[in-house]
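<instruction>
Derive structure tokens from the sequence

<record> Sequence and structure tokens follow
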Amino acid sequence: MTLGNTTIKLILLSILLFGTDTLSAQTLGSSGVMTVLMCTVAILALLALVFVADSLLKLEAKNVGADKNGENYSVLPNFKEIARPRVPDFVPRQNLHTLSKGHDLKLEGKAQPIVDGSLRATTYAVQPPDFNGIAPIPKMLVQVGDNVKAGDPLFFNKKTPDIKFCSPVSGEIIAINRAEKRAISEVVILADKEQAYREFGTFDLNGMKREELVSFLAESGVWPMIIRRPYQMIADLNEIPRDIFVTTFDSAPLAPDSNIMVEGREGDFQKGLDVLNKLTGNKVYLGLNAKVEPSVAFSDARGVEKHWFHGKHPAGNVGVQIHHIKPIANSDVVWTLGVQEVITLGALFTKGRFDAGRVVALAGAELKEPKYIRTYLGASIESFLKDNIEGDEELRYLSGDVLTGKQIESKGYLGFFDDQITVLKEGRYNELFGWLLPLAPRPSISRTMPGFVMPNFEYRADTNTHGEQRAFVVTGQYEKVLPMDIYPQHLMKSILMGDLERMEGLGLLELAEEDVALCEFVCTSKQPLQQILRDGLDFMREQG
């Protein structure tokens, strides 16, 4: 048992205060010397008493397991408690996680809180590459020219034939596009003007056995929305997760507001949580934003354990929330879903249909009017961006945010798990002495850039990386922006070496690509950390 930092500082302070007087005792009388000595002894005795009480309190907290929630069981406050940022009054102090690491990228072009329901896409696509772990050539159940309803199965993975991937809309199959080695890249549907749905009927959730529920979800098309960790892949039908985690906010740059997404769908969201409680053997955890007051659908949700997160990005990542609530240990399996996935799950029981409706944010400084739109999964982005582009410069279109989004064409399709379309200017230019003379404002965590004195300044970002890939050197930058007890640089090097034991020991199984996206942004070496992580996850999964 060791002395706490606070106790040591108090002892040193007492010696500093009274030691000088003791050493100059010749200037005092005998009574003065005795007084100083008695005061010193009294202070030391008080400090000893505090130290013993402090140690006993911590020991008791450890014995009963109360210290596992991160609370400070001590007589004296620690520095984190003193320096803890003020949180809004609506946030309860119970289950509050204050994250000190991370970085918020302030960019121009955030979607205004306006939901435009007038825009319609004519074509939609389901893209097999959106799903980790399935075969590149799944078994097709339709062919070009077939008519389908929303909820009709399109294909299935040959290794898991019970899980169906269904059409988000009704219409005609007009293309089954292929990529390299004849891998199927997308199944394209020309949507009907009036949507027709495959009806699944009503079901008594309380009267259904878990096996019946799992089979029903797999057949109805919602099962691919349930993601398994480790490996960030579709959940296994035969596994019972330790817990299920749902994050109700996204802290990524220009991310959409979940309060807008859930507006008018509160009943479906709660029903989705009820379904999740039937699937897990333990708890459903809900991660809430401690910076902005959440919708009542989140704050008043029933049947879940709520945890509040206050901090910079990636505080909204479900992987970070799992790490701080209940980390993934060896052999643990947890499931995760987003807000709109939970809504779709609930709508299957409230409406009896596969409702793939989505509220999507159109974001980026290159848009005339960044806003929200109402559409369906896999929508073509062309209809939404037509007449909404500012200028005629070369642009890059992303399905997702600027850190993790997938580059698509101007006539491309929204990803299965994405609820954001971001438009950026291509950065095909060179800067003379750009790293020596950083005159143009750019987002960075480096204090060599003048932006650090303007924390709320919004940047007009482009795709220029301001450098190329170079030697993978130790900088300590990753640890500054990843609020997890993981050493990302050591982990990445172990993946490159193919050291399975070290990869697992360094926390590979807790991570997904989005968790290291900010590390990739700040990387001086310009290493593709997300791809390295995915290679490591796939390698470990293949090795069993």
Notes: DSSP finds 15 helices and 20 strands in the chain. The CA atoms of residues 1 and 459 lie 50 Å apart. The two ends are 41 Å apart (CA to CA). Confidence is low (pLDDT under 50) at residues 20-25.
